[in-house]
Amino acid sequence: MPITDFHGDTFVAFTDISGFKELMKNDAIALEALKHFYQTGFNVLRDVENVEGFFVSDCGILFSRGGDVETKLANILDAISKINRKMIEKDYMLTTSISYGHFDYRGKIEFQGIEKNPIYGGAYVQSFLDNETGKPKIQPGQCRLLKKNLPEVVIENIPLLVEKANDKQHLYYYWNLEDPDQIENFESRYRDSYSLKYTGMLTALKS
After folding, report:
1. Which of 53, 83, 160, 187 would be a feasible disulfide site paired with 174, CB 3.0-4.6 Å?
2. Can you give the pTM of this predicted structure?
């Protein structure tokens, strides 16, 4: 179903497949990742109310339409959670940055041999830049919301959306958990996984 034009303030998410450059070393593996990503995105956006988007290469751009600010946020987080959960079933991790602000989407403009889907607006740019170069660097599996330009929302209604002590610029969404009491244990295990990675590198170098 084609996306209708949109013009206004909303939440925009930029999500992409972690480590896709590595996957591209094998065409068949990269293609399989993209097929699963696109099919997952299509299925989720078909079922989640008032969230639309499209996918290009290893990236997806999603936005909310309809409802008040809190409803828009809840809807886009729901879509992101479902996409991440489906991707992780196949061992693919995503990184996702979300921001709030002006967003402009215009339907397809067609010329002979050329098709364009123009997208404009600060929210898209902020999400893209945060995902690519934001500080601290976003890690595989993470989904975070930029606090810049964020209107007043009742964060307590989304208990898995929290601020980290060492990062005042973002709120982190723990899409993989069911209860905020699980966050501390998850973060500990996530940090341990990085320690194990570097331990493996040291072992390889020493051998």
Report:
1. 160
2. 0.90
